[in-house]
Structure formats: structure tokens, C-alpha cells
Design a protein that fits this description.
Helix 7 (about 195-220) packs across helix 9. With about 325 residues, the chain is of the alpha/beta class. It is about 50% helix and about 20% strand.
């Protein structure tokens, strides 16, 4: 049996990358999917579009601000508000789609998905990129269309190579694996999860908790009586790392973080745990027993601890490198 997919080497901005290549598709021009529709042309929508590029027979992009006169080859743009009933032209496009990708805000998606499920062919594959899955799971049916619910665990402005995308399969068994192959061909690492609840529990601790703790520290800093410039100038590496994350977060739309905090059914429990453990750290320090907490965390980290500590060391060295170089250059100019 011939191997359809081989491994190829690509040179990109991240160095030499070993990525799978669909040589048969390159030679024959065969597409992975027929007509496709992409709802949402924001950052995540553009990421999904890059995944679909050259892999679908045709692409229709639907967005509130889309122009009907797109200049891209083989791309039709339709301006539409998905919170309204699906108008006839769009309904016709959706009814013939083999693949539909929804890169929409969570609340908008929950309201739109029933209308979409009713409009697509039963053999179609629906993709969503929601960061919270539990509100969607009630809408999935084993007799409905195939569902692949994915969540890129990185900002779409970053390179996708080597980064994780969480995936939950639901609905009718179909071509979910074909779309996952497209993600993998972009160098993305796919992590498949059992169901929506497992996804939301994992996201609550890896995103909602981190975001809440970081923003809480940011509010504490803002109320401390020192300017951002003062703190950034003298911050030791752990503080600088937090400042970097805060600076990145405040540059993003608030909806990115609100949706996870508000809609994830496990987020409130994680926030409560954070508050409880902040108090516990103070208690342990008072009785001179903070080492027990450090020991518990070290046990939990297990074998991941050493490489993570080494990575942290390398990152912190990068923090000080520019300052050290300036000092050397300054000393050289004085001599």
C-alpha cells in the first residue's frame, strides 16, 4: 500500500522544520474538501483560512464587515450578521458546503449553531474554534452533522508551528480526521480530548486560572502607588515576566478573556482556589512552613520540573542580555 503522506523538510523563521507533506495532493491538485464556508474573519478566522488555503475547492468568507467584492482568487466574501435569520443567498451557499468553519465569539456561536445545523447537509463537517465547549455540547447530536470543536491554545498572531490545538469530536462520525490532518500539516500539535467537559476543565486550569491570577496581580500593581515605568525599570525576572504577560494581555480585546472567565463552568472554582491558596501561602510563611508548599508543587511537577526550570533560566538570561550588552558597549566607548 502506497504511503500517501511523506515527511519533508522546510526552512522557516523558526529554523529547519520537519513537517508532513501531502505529495499526492501537490502532484494531482486534489483538494481535501469541496466547497467550504468560513464564518468570522478576525484573528482566529485568518488562522483557519491559512489552514484551508489550497485545500478546499472554493471558500466563502462570511463576516459582519466583509466586502462582497473580494479580490482573492476563488474566494467569495459575504457581509452578514449571523445573529439575524440566514438570508437566502447565504443559505444556498451553506446548503452546498462540505465544510463549515465557525471562528465566532462564544455567545454568538451558541446562538448561531442551531440555525447552522438546520441549514447544512447532514454529511457536512462543522468546525468551531470556541474557547469554552460546554454550552455547545447540548447542541451536538449523533444524528446531526459531523462536529469537530477545536481550540487553538495560542494567539493567532503567533506562528502555529509546534503549538497545541485542543480537539473534541462529536456528532455524526465523518471527516473530522481529515481536518485534523490539515492542522498537522501546518506544524500544529493536535491534542484530542474525550469530551467538552474534559476540555473545559483543562482550559480552566491552563488559561482561566493563569489569566485571573495575572490580572489580579496587575490590579494589585496598579494600586500600589508606583508607576508602570518605575516597576518595569527595576523589576526582577519573575516580576518582569508577569509585566510582559500583562502588557500582552491588555493589548488584546477584553472578550478574549471575558468569555473564558464567564462561560467556562469550572472557572469560578479555579478562581476560588487561587484566592484560598494566596491566603494559605501567607499562613504557611507565618508558621515558617512554606517549604511544604514548595515540596508539594515539586512532587506535582515530577519529571517536567527540571526541563521547565532550565527553560526559565534561559528566558531570564534573555531578559538581562540587552542590558549587559549596553553596559559593555558603554564601557568600550569610554576607554
Amino acid at each position: 500500500m502506497e504511503r500517501e503522506f511523506e515527511v519533508g523538510w522546510y526552512v522557516c523563521s523558526h529554523g529547519l522544520q520537519n513537517l508532513p507533506v501531502d505529495w499526492s495532493a501537490l502532484l494531482t491538485g486534489r483538494r481535501a474538501f469541496g466547497p467550504a464556508v468560513l464564518f468570522g474573519d478576525g484573528g482566529v478566522g485568518k488562522l483557519m483560512r491559512s489552514v484551508l488555503a489550497g485545500r478546499v475547492e472554493s471558500l466563502t468568507i462570511v463576516d459582519l464587515l466583509s466586502s462582497d467584492n473580494g479580490s482573492d482568487d476563488n474566494v467569495l466574501r459575504i457581509a452578514a450578521d449571523v445573529t439575524n435569520p440566514i438570508e437566502h443567498r447565504l443559505e444556498s451557499v451553506v446548503a452546498s458546503a462540505e465544510l463549515v468553519v465557525c471562528a465566532l465569539p462564544g455567545d454568538t456561536l451558541v446562538a448561531f449553531l442551531p440555525k447552522l445545523i438546520a441549514a447544512v447537509p447532514t454529511w457536512a463537517l462543522i468546525i468551531d474554534t470556541a474557547s469554552v465547549k460546554s454550552p455547545l455540547s447540548a447542541l451536538w447530536s449523533p444524528t446531526g452533522p459531523s462536529i469537530l470543536s477545536v481550540n487553538p491554545m495560542f494567539a493567532p498572531s503567533l506562528s502555529p508551528v509546534g503549538r497545541r490545538v485542543l480537539a473534541v469530536t462529536a456528532g455524526r462520525p465523518g471527516r473530522q480526521e481529515d481536518f485534523l490532518k490539515l492542522l498537522r500539516r501546518k506544524g500544529i500539535v493536535v491534542v484530542q480530548l474525550a469530551d467538552a467537559d474534559e476540555h473545559d476543565r483543562l482550559v480552566a486550569i491552563t488559561q482561566a486560572g493563569v489569566h485571573a491570577a495575572t490580572l489580579a496581580y496587575g490590579l494589585t500593581l496598579a494600586a500600589a502607588g508606583f508607576s508602570g515605568e518605575q516597576v518595569a525599570e527595576l523589576a526582577p525576572p519573575p516580576c518582569r515576566q508577569q509585566l510582559m504577560l500583562l502588557a500582552r494581555m491588555v493589548a488584546q480585546p477584553s472578550e478574549v478573556y471575558e468569555d473564558i472567565q464567564r462561560s467556562n463552568p469550572h472557572a469560578e472554582h479555579i478562581r476560588a482556589g487561587l484566592a484560598e491558596n494566596v491566603a494559605e501561602i501567607g499562613r504557611l510563611a507565618t508558621i515558617k512552613n512554606l517549604g511544604s508548599a514548595l515540596s508539594d508543587i515539586a512532587d506535582w511537577l515530577g519529571n517536567a520540573g527540571i526541563p521547565l526550570a532550565e527553560l526559565c533560566q534561559n528566558v531570564y538570561e534573555e531578559f538581562t542580555a540587552p542590558a549587559a550588552m549596553r553596559t559593555v558597549e558603554s564601557a568600550g566607548s569610554d576607554s
